[in-house]
């Protein structure tokens, strides 16, 4: 199974003694496998901070979901020919990058774990999320809804662990859902998701016609 760069770097940072268990999990909903979900543990070794970016291009955020360790720095380059006004009112990080083109002068430091929802004050349809974690054990599910997650031995409790699962389409996407699993056995977990949003509304089609305004 292919790992994300974040998961690979975090795994290499773990002491050998803590790489005891590989949790294999498949995440599903009523519609089938759930891709792009973030699965992470509480506790374990503290992660090192990183530098990342969320770009604005074609009036969308790229990537739409970014997973970073706590205290990481994120830049928000604007690659459109229109101004953007990026903001968040989430408790884990409240900030505003007022109307700008190109690149803001100062990146944003995400110094608290939690789910941070991003928006643009000019283009209401733009939305993205930063999932800030305080653990080295974090991964996103692949197209088949699968992950492999390295579980440090000190996170087990009577042979089980609690995992956090988050997806943009959770009924309450301001927080993860928690599930208890046995890390020594393949796990299959089902979650409830809201319907896929309509990505080609009349407003979207109109905006595409006037993309350069």
TrEMBL record:
InterPro entries: Cupredoxin (IPR008972), MauL (IPR034242). SUPFAM superfamilies: Cupredoxins. The keyword Cytoplasm does not apply. Residues 1-20 form the signal peptide. CDD domains: MauL. Keywords: Signal. This is Methylamine utilization protein. The lineage of its organism: Bacteria, Pseudomonadati, Pseudomonadota, Gammaproteobacteria, Pseudomonadales.
């Amino acid at each position: 199974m292919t790992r994300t760069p974040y998961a690979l770097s975090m795994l290499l940072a773990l002491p050998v003694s803590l790489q005891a268990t590989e949790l294999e999990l498949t995440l599903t909903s009523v519609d089938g496998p759930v891709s792009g979900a973030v699965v992470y543990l509480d506790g374990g070794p503290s992660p090192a901070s990183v530098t990342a970016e969320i770009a604005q291009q074609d009036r969308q955020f790229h990537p739409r979901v970014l997973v970073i360790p706590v205290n990481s720095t994120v830049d928000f380059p604007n690659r459109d020919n229109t101004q953007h006004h990026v903001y968040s009112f989430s408790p884990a990080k409240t900030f505003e990058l007022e109307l700008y083109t190109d690149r803001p002068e100062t990146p944003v430091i995400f110094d608290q774990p939690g789910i941070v929802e991003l928006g643009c004050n000019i283009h209401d349809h733009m939305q993205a999320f930063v999932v800030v974690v305080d653990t080295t054990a974090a991964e996103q599910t692949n197209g088949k809804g699968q992950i492999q997650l390295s579980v440090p031995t000190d996170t087990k409790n009577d042979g089980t662990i609690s995992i956090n699962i988050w997806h943009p389409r959770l009924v309450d996407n301001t927080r993860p859902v928690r599930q208890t699993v046995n890390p020594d056995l393949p796990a299959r977990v089902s979650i409830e998701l809201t319907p896929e949003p309509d990505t080609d509304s009349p407003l979207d089609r109109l905006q595409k016609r006037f993309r350069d305004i």
